[in-house]
Amino acid sequence: ILSLAPDVRLVDITHHIRPQGIGEAAFLLSHIAPTFPSGTIHVAVVDPGVGTGRQPVGIECEEGSHLIGPDNGVFGPVREKLGTRRVVRLDPSRVRPGGSLSATFEGRDLFAPAAARLARGTGLGDLGTPTELRAESAPRTPSRAPGSGSVVHVDVFGNLITDLPPGALPGPGNPVRVSWKGPGGSGARVLPRVRTYGDLPPGTLGVLVSSFGLVEIARAGGSAAAALSLGEGSSVTLTPGPSRHAGTLRHRQSL
């Protein structure tokens, strides 16, 4: 990007998406992109289908920003927030006339140059041909019972961000029974519902509302993901829990 647009301002959001984690990338992008100013060019490359028939696309949003990356569902949730004005299938011969295109690294050879060209003032229509998206959104989990959800993101601290809204929790100070099923097995535990990480004694687990506005399971001074052997995609169910069971732990390892 800098070789083509040396004056551009780059903001590196994350390189901590798990490999092939289209759903996790879509979740983060949908929460982060709307906080940037209109006219921002967002490049998202979580692309297990690189080199196949999936489309490389550029999207012009209603509010003036652009999205550049693969047509594999990664842009579904963010488009619901930013809107879509038009979609173009990127043409390598227009993006990099005379340049080579790797079958395994289109992030370098196509998406980054396309973003740089846009930053320099090239119109999106000059980089390809009009198209329609084939993958509207990342794969969605089937409808579930109230209080049932899944982990959609594990941050660098090991906090488990779920797709459950705050309404799935009891009021602050009331315990909540958390049941789970993940790679390390299944189990259940009654945890305190707190407002901040500092409300938990060191090393203990609790449930709170994350900065994403969603239910989060955290461990004070440690990793909830490691403590419960859970990760992105693990199922979680919340129900009210009586305080007298606050120390109860049941855990069954998968064989």
UniProtKB/TrEMBL annotation:
Ranges for domain S-adenosyl-l-methionine hydroxide adenosyltransferase N-terminal: 1-128
Residue ranges of the region described as Disordered: 122-149, 233-255
One matching Pfam family: SAM_HAT_C
Annotated ranges, domain S-adenosyl-l-methionine hydroxide adenosyltransferase C-terminal: 149-237
Keyword 4Fe-4S among record annotations: no
Keywords of the record: S-adenosyl-L-methionine
InterPro entries tied to this protein: SAM_HAT_C, SAM_HAT_N, SAM_OH_AdoTrfase, SAM_OH_AdoTrfase_C_sf, SAM_OH_AdoTrfase_N_sf
Gene3D superfamilies: Bacterial fluorinating enzyme like, S-adenosyl-l-methionine hydroxide adenosyltransferase, N-terminal
Keyword S-adenosyl-L-methionine: yes
Annotated family: Belongs to the SAM hydrolase / SAM-dependent halogenase family.
Name recorded for this polypeptide: Protein containing DUF62
Protein's organism: mine drainage metagenome
Taxonomic path: unclassified sequences, metagenomes, ecological metagenomes
